[in-house]
Specification:
Two copies of one chain form a homodimer. With 155 residues, the first copy, chain A, is of the alpha+beta class. The first copy, chain A, has seven helices and five strands, in the order H-E-E-H-H-E-H-E-H-H-E-H. Chains A and B meet through helix 1, helix 3, strand 3, helix 4 and strand 4 of A and helix 1, helix 3, strand 3, helix 4 and strand 4 of B.
Chain lengths: 155, 155
Amino acid sequence: MSNGFMARAIELSLENVRSGKGGPFATVIVKHGKIIAEGSNEVTSVNDPTAHGEIVAIREACRRLRTFQLSDCEIYTTCEPCPMCLGAIYWTRCARVYFANTIEDAAKIGFSDAFIYDEIRRPVTRRQLPMIPLMREEAQQAFRAWQEKRDRIPY
Amino acid sequence: MSNGFMARAIELSLENVRSGKGGPFATVIVKHGKIIAEGSNEVTSVNDPTAHGEIVAIREACRRLRTFQLSDCEIYTTCEPCPMCLGAIYWTRCARVYFANTIEDAAKIGFSDAFIYDEIRRPVTRRQLPMIPLMREEAQQAFRAWQEKRDRIPY
């Protein structure tokens, strides 16, 4: 099935490869049938490992709407999101995600998404990345302060 | 065991609650024994759902070092990273992560990290967030263009 929003995202992903701005990925965010933000992968040109198409588009949509949640929005992205972007998408509380290429497709052309999913699915102690617990007792102070704060803004 | 870098991150997380800038989380990035970047959670004050302490610190470290990878760096973060931040940490190729509070601690004070981990560990079709495949054939164009691009910069 063809879709104008996904077609636009695919167009952006192609432009992104041609211009050399970054990887072959782009994202469009739609609210009430209108595009409110677009984003292309800018990792290598902006020197920001978090600048995937989804993150760029989410930040732009939130800037425009002046909100930190995208409750009634739909995300059209040219590839199934990596764990970083999928995590970000959950934090936005958006309504749904449409994706084109899969994680397996991305792995085939050399991207680490599948490896990162494998790692994240493992318990902390069985990951290739060393993750070391430290000073939990002391860090609890900030959590207590948060709970006691009357004017805290939950998210 | 006490550690000066983690103590600094905890101090930042406490300051962050007191100032009302965001959630009770902060991160410090260290290279060759020196702090090169600090970040506190700014989600609600900056209107950016991706502005967790880790992401803020990673972007700052990369900006300073003019690179999109943090190969020889260590990340000290006051709470076990959420899936978004853990994904970002993998993309940085950093050496190791030290964390204080756990995902379970964060869940106890109302944060969604544990829920998002549960979701990400499920197959696409069994998540609460609808994820719908669309136009994969057309999106493959950008992947082919990427593979054919001689001067592409992998990341």
